[in-house]
Design goal:
alpha/beta
């Protein structure tokens, strides 16, 4: 099991496109709201994303039921959808993504949703081959996807820290100019 997880993470690292990661982090940082969609086993990842994004002061909600399509229709061009699916074929998820795209929201897909969406959206992705076996592929997929989630979280947190540092430096400069410090 550990070897499979290690190979899955190593494959994820090889396949990871850091330009996509940077675009995804930028989209999340610019978003007014983040909506995370995933069904079945992907719901676990959705709730992890929701918890992480919420802890860094972003409005974030995870959706993992069929009523999600109605909420996707309320999103705007200022919002980001993070779509999570190992197979990229869940009809409900693809429907939610289509509705959100029609509403103007931008999409970050984890991991295989990009296969169904082609290059219409920004994504970060991994791909798994059959060597992991049916019983292990879910665990490897979830672990690899969680690693990407952690990478996105750290990227967003780093950008927030950089912004706060710039704001703090600007504020100190303003106070110095006014002889307040």
């Amino acid at each position: 099991m550990f070897r499979s997880i290690f190979r899955g993470l190593a494959d994820t690292l090889k396949l990871l496109d850091y330009e996509d990661v940077n675009r995804a982090v930028q989209l999340i940082c610019q978003a007014h709201r983040v909506a995370v969609y995933g069904f079945g086993n992907s719901a676990t990842v959705c709730h992890d994303v929701e918890t992480k994004v919420f802890t860094i002061w972003y409005s974030c909600q995870a959706y993992s039921d069929l009523a999600s399509t109605d909420i996707a229709a309320l999103l705007t061009e200022y919002d980001v959808v993070i779509a999570v699916s190992h197979t990229g074929t869940a009809a409900e998820l693809l429907q939610c993504v289509d509705v959100a795209k029609t509403s103007g929201a931008r999409i970050v897909a984890l991991p295989a949703v990009r296969l169904a969406l082609q290059n219409a959206v920004y994504y970060t992705a991994t791909e798994w081959d059959a060597r992991y076996g049916i019983s292990r592929v879910r665990s490897v997929a979830i672990d690899s996807t969680m690693a990407i989630v952690d990478l996105l979280y750290m990227g967003v947190a780093w950008r927030i820290q950089q912004s706060i540092g710039r704001i703090s430096a600007d504020a100190q400069g303003d106070r110095r100019e006014k002889n307040l410090i």
